[in-house]
Amino acid sequence: MSGEGLVDAERRRFNRLALAPSLIVLFVIAGLPAIYLVVISLTPFQLVNPGSSTDFSSPLRNYLLLPGDPRFVNSLWVQAKLSFWGVLLQVLFGMLLALLLHTQSRVVEFARTLFLIPMVLPPIVVAIIWKLIYTPDISPLYYAASLLNVTMPSLTSSVDFALSAIIIADTWEWMPFTFLMVLAALQTIPEEFSEAALVDGANRLQIFFYITLPFITPILVISGMFRLIDSVKAFPLVFLLTGGGPGSVTEVTNYYAYLLAFDFNEIGYSSSVTIVMLLLVVAVSLGVVWMGRRREAMA
Amino acid sequence: MSGGMSGPVRRSASPRRLVAIGVTLIVLLSPFLWLLQMSFKSNDLILQFPPPLIFTPTLQNYASLWQGAFAASFVNSLMSASFSTALALVLGVPAAYALSRWAGRGKHALSFAILVTRMAPPIAFTIPFFLFYRWIGLLDTVTGLVLVYTSFNLPLVIWMMQPFFETVPSSLEEAALVDGASTRVVFLQIVLPMVAPGIAATAILCFLYAWNDFFFALILTRTNARTAPVAVVNFMNYEGWEWGKIAAGGSLVMAPVLIFSLAVRRYLVSGLTAGAVKG
Fold first, then answer.
1. What biological-process GO terms show up in the record (chain A) (predicted)?
2. Is there a domain that residue A48 lies in?
3. What is the set of domains in chain B, with CATH numbers?
4. What residues 70-99 of chain B have any CB closer than 8 A to a CB of chain A?
5. Which residue of B has its CA nearest to A295?
6. pLDDT bracket for residue A298 (50, 70, 90)
């Protein structure tokens, strides 16, 4: 029927008109910058030396320098430690919190919202909050320690504790995220499962390990992966609490790239560091998408 | 055991559990509450230990903030967050509708591209934007911030609005089309009003993401377009550690976020996970 053909053509024209502006704008403000970043990473561009932005004489120079740069290698290692402990603690405590709050009560439902506060705070405010906690003169933590006759070292300027201080603050900020995801998963477990297990004489610990845990494992993995991706972005905490120090104990790759570009003016080299970081993020994101699809296929 | 018969996984709360929840809540929120109480104290009182349990709250920190340059930064934050939200909605809502009605190839590739834009560390965009703005003179302008914020808000809108459009029954649209209405009219007069709550939730999330930004504003602004988060941090560097003002500034920056995000908490997770998991 020609009428339907007309409707289809009209619908296609509408779709094109609706999509085109977004795709063009996205290309200009996300696509072009990404391409430009790659191009710049092939030059030895320094801000003080404008001519260097078009110097493609040895395009892979930056990338070849990377493996021999001890500060870059160290930053990857710091990032790995921060990500590993941060994700582990967030998944563990988020799960425990979800188990604690998985119950039916009006009061508890209201409390759940309050538990989300650390996650929704602006990241810089989280950094300010922990700056207060870690500054000895004004910190209730140091006061409490002095009451117990414990002399606490200055956490954020200590080689041994600076990274742990950041991990603690990061865990505080993002535990609500894993909590929320796990809670959603817990609410989908059919009650008959644990009821049947109870009738069979299983205790609570057994129910947790044989019923609850297998059920929520996929969501634990996925929320952990999301935190893993986002942990690469940890900037305000490092910026405000330690500035990457002492030395380069807390200098994550993101922070190193920032220093390179906007402190040392090594734009070209910083871009190559950023590209490597971006590739790592894309690899993890692909993993998340793949797992999400597999989960859909299984469901 | 009557309370336990509904199953241990989902029973009603026992008093012991309620106490445990209360204690956990107080412990977890104490760092946040510490900042809040500090913003109502004079500087002498802040340095006083043991901290007095009862003190006369003062608004002097907030008053001095409002008389200083902080007010202008607050307005900059409001403007850049609102404009980028509006721009992202105007562009992204029709695109999300078209995508939700489109079963063609390329949908997965497009979703993944959108996911990557959301996941990329901000520094990846900062370097090109910084160089480009320096060249065309958009450094330290609200316009510059709006464009950067749109680069992550537009993908968020496109991704978040699709499920809302999918809930609109296609029979409604077909009936109107048979009656001779154009797709544009169907979209504007039938579909859009039905997804209004979704648009509101998406708008709030966009606003929050832009409002919360620190990194872009730190690098792309100096004094004219400086946003509130950057202004608060500047209290630490230049004005000699005025803890009362820092606490008050921090509290002001988090106020809109707390109000809005509690209003849209149902959508918080889907906004954060941006595409890979279907809630």
1. transmembrane transport
2. no
3. 3-59 (no CATH), 62-273 (1.10.3720.10)
4. 91-92, 94-95, 97-99
5. B277
6. low
Do A111 and B25 count as a contact with CB atoms less than 8 A apart?
A: yes
Q: Tell me the residue range of the domain where A133 lies.
A: 69-298
Number of compact structural domains in chain A: 1
Cα angle value B135/B141/B146 (rounded, 5°): 100
What is the average pLDDT score of chain B? 83
CB A102 within 8 A of CB B9: yes
A29 vs B94, B150, B184: nearest CB: B150
CA nearest B268 in A: which residue? A120
Residue type for position B247? A
CATH number of A98's domain: 1.10.3720.10
Cα distance between residue B220 and residue B236, in whole Å: 20
Question: CB under 8 Å to A254, separation ≥6 — which residues?
Answer: A79, A232, A233, A234, A235, A238, A277, B121, B123
Encode pLDDT of B75-110 as tens digits. 999 999 999 999 999 999 999 999 888 766 667 777
Would you say residue A31 lies in a domain?
Answer: no
Flag whether residue B244 sits within 8 Å of chain A, measured between CB atoms. no
Q: What is the ipTM of this complex?
A: 0.85
**Residue predicted with more confidence, A104 or A125:** A125
pLDDT tens per residue across span A76-92: 999 999 999 999 999 99
- What part of A 36-55 touches B (C-beta under 8 Å)? 36-37, 40
Distance from CA of A62 to the nearest CA of B (A): 16
Tokens of A285: 């994101």
- Interface touch B98/A262, C-beta < 8 Å: no
> For residue A274, is it within any domain?
yes
